[in-house]
Amino acid sequence: MSDAAATPRRIVHIDMDAFYASVEQRDYPELRGKAVAVGGSSRRGVVAAASYEARQFGVRSAMPSVTAARRCPDLVFVKPRFEVYRAVSQQIRAIFARYTPQIEPLSLDEAYLDLTGRLAAGATATETAAEIRAAILAETGLTASAGISYCKFLAKIASDQNKPDGQCVIPPGRGEAFIAALPVHKFHGIGPATAAKMKRLGIETGADLRAQSLAFLETRFGKSGKWYFNISRGIDNREVKPDRTRKSIGAERTYSEDLHTLSEGQDALAALAEKVWRHADAHKSRGRTVTLKVKFANFQQITRAQSLPRPVTSEQELLDTAQTLLAGVMPDPRGVRLLGITLSSLGADAKKPSRQLDLFE
């Protein structure tokens, strides 16, 4: 079938509106109505989140702070408070739990909910999504947007259609038509490089994608070809998984001054290892694979990884492994502007070989 099954699911994707920036504007009234960027304002800083007032000037997350300040001279930079954001996120998830236990968080500010078979008598998924959004606003003072559909792919796309503080429903029978008119660069999971490749192949909309054969797509996009073939027809059978676990735990930092010596780099890794290990402890997770990320001053980036025969047993072992990996790439005449450590191949029991988990949060 090209659309939903005979008994369609009721999937809702809830996405908080400019979450980090909105929390700051909520807690600090003097920021309301102003262009706000959460992140460092230094020459090496990066925007973690931008308020809608800032977005009107083209300020976006992951943008270098110097670029953001150039686009919006009145931009107010605010230091991130991740402990606060996590606490608010837990408050929001408690609201979700009133409606369904089938909750799949994607990050602190978004999640899938499966309401199939859990709607109140006479209620629709659309009405329930509006009720959830109203509860979030009443209890946290923050707005959320929602997408409602019969599959996760469409629910995710729908939540972005009427932002901020809105919702959109794509019912069964309309999935293919909605996708046909949508530019492929707006498809969740299709990044700029893939969208550019598709454009070179004459694929610019969902209709263009649907016109391609499975063999054509698999030849040019490998394993992703079948996924593109299906979503262009409104087919996505993935379930909402409430038990999804982090696939990796990582931390990185951009430095205000380039690091040039190995000792500087190894010293800098200590804070990153501490942060990663703290989160691993909080989630009772251990991992076998340590990955080092290095971005040089010219923005070229490399990664180096080492997989151990059993899970890393301590913060010191995590740090030692990362420092050993760094010794293979530093010193470098370009200088290093960013370092990152990721722990993956996660499992809950350090005494047993860990298994690869589903997706990262």
TrEMBL record:
It is found in: Cytoplasm. This is DNA polymerase IV. The gene is dinB. Pfam families: IMS, IMS_C, IMS_HHH_1. It comes from Paracoccus isoporae. HAMAP family: DNApol_IV (MF_01113). Residues 11-191 form the UmuC domain. Monomer. Belongs to the DNA polymerase type-Y family.
